[in-house]
Design brief:
Length: 631
């Protein structure tokens, strides 16, 4: 027997198929293991089906619980889109953590050493007056706006011109402690993290019970919109609205798609459709409160964009009625009143806000702004200052730095320049001196110019050659007491009388005025650098003895201002621009950039008469001159 086994084993070893047999045995073992895995998988699948079929688990309660915690996209429950948002948030959070660490380190460095000037950006700011409380001449009530791109409305960069060493400002201007760069770096991260936490706690719920049942169809249309396939998305939402007319979320999606398409096509007509769709959403039954708020806020914003300020005001009033505890909505309502020129209404709103939330920074800066427009200069200062110091959203605006500094100047407080410096460091002003905010970047910035530097020598020579003709026509109007010279109405005078007689305004000829001075208007007709200047005027200016004009700046860096002396007393009349003071001469032209701070004294014994001609900044292209909005 042993011999047979030995022979058999030997034969197996010697046989060429021996190794194959061994491999076959191992393969059988592997197949058996794989079969067991398949069996277990099938068992798991059938178990899942059984659980679902026989309702062994209450999935609604589970998903509801998850939705409350993980509803990242705000549609009312947890799905694939939520997972994407959560994954994206995790990535962003990791980046923010690294960035916050770097910022803290940089903040420590800044605190230890001297601060460095930051890159300059510009925002619109103008002098407020009772007639123009916001100082925004290009956002008038009822004015239709179009989808146009304008350089001056964006946050532009300007080459700054630092104040000369002999300026009447301390050589080392200190920024108020509450708004130093160190504070900016150390406080911002904590504010952001707080907002993030609040956002996580209060994710908007945009789906009602019915919309949850058709969520997959809504998501399909929404994905098209998010991918930029706006026309397809709009068709999808229109089909859903036709199929489910009572669905708030479907109609909201349609409104958003129309909104996006209006932006893409730059169409006011399409934007009006979006506004109507937003309004329809809020009027449907069973609309979730978060969706009502989101819809009406966007509706008000789009109405305001279109210049339908009264409609925007009505929408915001409706919002405040529905959500009376939301302070931010009342603040927005106050702005709507201001845009309508209703200072009293805005003032009442902000008084109500401050009674409930006395430390609300947004309400404070706007309330201070209103007080200053009412010439309550001293009273406006604490509200503007304290509001800026909060650093709350909506307070970091050049207009508030501008008007706080101006109010401080008028009360003789030298800390005005600290705030101008703070505004400059925050990127609102090109420099402490140059504080205009309707700007085009890159234009040469200097306070005083010569005729040769402007390139407008022909215009200057014409004015100086014909100054007697121009003077005589102006005097005839002045002597006639016809009422053509109107008082200055921008609240720029500390004392005295200052009248103006306008021939061209915002690039348009005032024909009624030119009838009184036909020769002067005829002389100017061919000088388009002046007559087409939409950001300036051509006018006579008469200033009586005893007049002082506060330090102020013009609204834009897009123009230069020419002064032709017509009747100039021998002593007592002078103009300061930055730290350089000059005097007028009869028959001679002075040229300066009025976006820089300037101030006027008339201390003579008789009146002073000059002719003011604004011209385009010589470095503006023809296209820019044609497309810039009027001021």
């Amino acid at each position: 027997m042993k011999q047979k086994k030995t022979v058999r084993n030997q034969a197996r070893k010697d046989s060429p198929g021996g190794k194959t047999a061994i491999k076959s045995e191992k393969k059988t073992e592997g197949n058996s293991f794989f079969s067991w895995l398949l069996v277990l998988a099938f068992l798991g699948a059938w178990l899942s089906v059984g659980v679902m079929w026989f309702d062994l688990v209450d999935y609604n309660s589970v998903v509801g619980t998850l939705g409350g915690v993980y509803d990242a996209d705000g549609d009312g429950d947890f799905d694939v889109e939520d997972a994407k948002v959560l994954l994206e948030n995790a990535t962003v959070a990791a980046k923010e953590k690294t960035l916050r660490k770097n910022i803290t380190t940089e903040g420590d460095h800044i605190q230890a050493g001297p601060s460095k000037p930051t890159c300059l950006t510009e925002k619109p700011v103008m002098v407020a007056s009772p007639e123009n409380p916001l100082g925004e001449k290009d956002s008038l009530p009822g004015e239709n706006r179009e989808f146009t791109t304008e350089e001056s409305r964006t946050a532009n960069q300007i080459s700054p011109e630092s104040p000369p060493a002999t300026q009447p400002v301390p050589t080392s201007v200190s920024t108020p402690e509450s708004i130093t760069e160190t504070t900016e770096f150390t406080e911002e991260p904590s504010v952001e993290s707080k907002e993030e936490k609040e956002a996580k706690k209060k994710k908007p719920k945009l789906l009602n019970k019915f919309d949850k049942t058709i969520k997959s169809e809504i998501n399909a249309a929404e994905k098209l919109r998010k991918k930029g396939k706006i026309e397809e998305s709009l068709r999808a939402f229109e089909a859903l609205v036709q199929k489910f007319p009572q669905s708030p979320r479907c109609r909201y999606g349609k409104a958003q798609a129309e909104d996006d398409l209006a932006e893409k096509k730059r169409s006011n007509e399409m934007l009006l459709k979006a506004v109507n769709s937003y309004r329809e959403v809020a009027e449907l039954p069973d609309v979730p409160p978060d969706l009502v708020k989101a819809t009406l806020k966007r509706c008000a914003d789009r109405q305001q964009f279109l210049g339908r300020t009264k409609g925007s005001l009505a929408t915001l009033e409706k919002l405040v009625q529905i959500f009376p505890e939301d302070i931010s909505l009342k603040n927005d309502l106050g702005v709507a009143h201001l845009l309508l020129g209703d200072n009293k209404g805005a003032k009442r709103i902000y008084e109500e806000v401050l009674a409930r939330a006395p430390h609300d920074g947004f309400a404070k800066v706007h309330y201070g702004f209103i007080l200053k427009s009412e010439n309550m200069i001293a009273e406006s200062i604490p509200y503007l200052r304290e509001g800026l110091e909060t650093g709350e959203p909506g307070t970091d605006d050049g207009r508030f730095y501008f008007h706080l500094g101006d109010a401080l100047q008028r009360t003789g407080d030298k800390s005005a320049y600290d705030w101008y410096e703070a505004g400059h460091r925050r990127g609102h002003f090109a420099s402490v001196w140059q504080r205009s905010l309707y700007n085009v970047p890159g234009l040469r910035a200097r306070p005083w110019w010569t005729a040769e530097e402007t390139g407008y020598t022909a215009l200057v020579k014409m004015l100086e050659r014909n100054w007697l003709t121009i003077r005589d026509e102006a005097l005839s109007v002045l002597d006639s007491n016809s009422g053509q010279f109107l008082p200055e109405d921008e609240n720029l005078r500390e004392t005295g009388d200052w009248g103006q007689f306008t021939l061209w305004q915002q690039g348009r000829k005032v024909a009624a005025s030119c009838r009184y001075v036909p020769k002067t208007c005829g002389l100017l007709e061919r000088y388009t650098e002046a007559t087409s200047c939409k950001r300036g005027q051509i006018k006579f200016s008469v200033m009586q003895a005893g007049t002082h004009v506060w330090p102020h700046t013009g609204p834009t860096n897009c123009r230069l201002r020419m002064h032709l002396g017509l009747v100039i007393p021998s002593k007592g009349c002078r103009i300061r621009c930055t730290n350089q003071t000059r005097e007028w001469e009869e028959g001679k032209v002075l040229i300066f950039d009025d976006s820089f701070e300037h101030e006027v004294w008339q201390e003579a014994e008789s009146f002073r008469l000059i002719f003011i001609v604004d011209v385009w900044h010589p470095e503006l292209t023809q296209l820019q001159r044609q497309t810039l909005s009027p001021i």
